[in-house]
From TrEMBL:
One of its GO terms (biological process) is regulation of gene expression. It is found in: Nucleus. This is S1 motif domain-containing protein. Belongs to the RRP4 family. Transmembrane segments: none annotated. GO terms for molecular function: RNA binding. One of its GO terms (cellular component) is cytoplasmic exosome (RNase complex). Residues 81-159 form the S1 motif domain. Signal peptide: none annotated. The lineage of its organism: Eukaryota, Metazoa, Ecdysozoa, Arthropoda, Crustacea. Keywords: Exosome, RNA-binding.
């Protein structure tokens, strides 16, 4: 009987990529990283008997003399300046609680948002009473991490016109470790949709809206054309299949998968079938490696 492992199949081997020093070493919890005590201990490591040991499963990253282990899967911890997507869970006195795919709900205070009209002014009692008219439970928001408290909670801010309420789109969650680190998180893709790649793993896909028509805290109830809805659905399925195969998610990889799915004439509803997901994922990696 001949047995062939899945990892030895030519198409899967092409997706995994070549072996070599260009691939970061993978370690498991308890595995020894180095006996050299001159290296500094970073996140994901600890010292035991003058030996640096991995505390999580992930990839080793070395920056000068600092060694860290980046987990394969992790809960979003937050970093100041991150652009993220969240969902309002509670409306409280002077603040909103926001689900940001983290251990704790984040906090968005009334004083840290740009009030309607765009004017910079101190929030009043009337503004506080009208908080639910701005954001209520279930609303999606695009915000920025302003501060991290001692207990790990995040304090958010939305003090410019590019932040605020999100509407007329679709949200999906992936592992934060799969989102490519980039200063620019909001991208208007050439296919006619806007994608917000939240650093916390929440990705929001919506129609492209001209900047002059964007409104921070109002919802646009105009009907979205069918072709735009199809584009959003295809992009959503492309992101989902990339995440399913642990492929890094960026504007480049998403558009590559999108173009391939159109070239191969896959229907949107068929893109979540396991065989189609694998075909598109493998072809995407091959195209990006060329």
């Amino acid at each position: 009987m001949d047995i062939e492992l899945a990892c030895e199949l030519p198409r899967v081997r092409a997706m995994v990529g070549p072996e070599g020093p260009q691939r970061p070493p993978l370690v498991t919890p308890g595995e020894i990283i180095t006996h050299d005590t001159s290296f500094m201990r970073g996140h994901g490591t600890y010292m035991e008997n003058n030996t640096q040991v991995a505390s999580v499963a992930g990839y080793i990253t070395r920056v000068n003399r600092l060694i860290t282990v980046t987990p394969l899967r992790q809960v979003y911890q937050g970093a100041i300046g991150d652009t993220i997507v969240g969902r309002i869970t509670k409306v409280q006195n002077n603040r909103w609680k926001v689900d940001v795919n983290s251990r704790l709900d984040a906090e968005l205070r009334l004083v840290n948002i740009q009030l309607p009209g765009g004017e910079q002014r101190r929030s009043s009692l009337e503004d506080e009473r009208g908080m639910r008219g701005l954001l209520r439970e279930g609303d999606l928001v695009c915000v920025e991490v302003q501060k991290i408290s001692n207990d790990g909670g995040l304090r958010l801010a939305a003090r410019s016109s590019k932040f605020g309420k999100l509407s007329q789109g679709t949200l999906l969650g992936v592992s934060p470790s799969l989102i490519v680190q980039d200063k620019q998180r909001m991208h208007d893709l050439p296919c006619g949709a806007r994608v917000v790649f939240g650093a916390n793993g929440y990705v929001y896909v919506s129609p492209t809206v001209p900047e002059e028509q964007a409104s921070t805290y109002t919802v646009n109830f105009e009907e979205v054309p069918v072709d735009v809805r199809k584009t959003i659905g295809r992009l959503r399925n492309c992101i989902k299949l990339l995440a399913h195969h642990s492929i890094m998610i960026s504007p480049t990889s998403v558009m590559t998968a999108y173009d391939i799915s159109i070239e191969q004439e896959f229907e949107i509803r068929d893109m979540l079938k396991p065989d189609v997901m694998q075909d598109v994922a493998i072809t995407t990696v091959q195209a990006m490696n060329e």
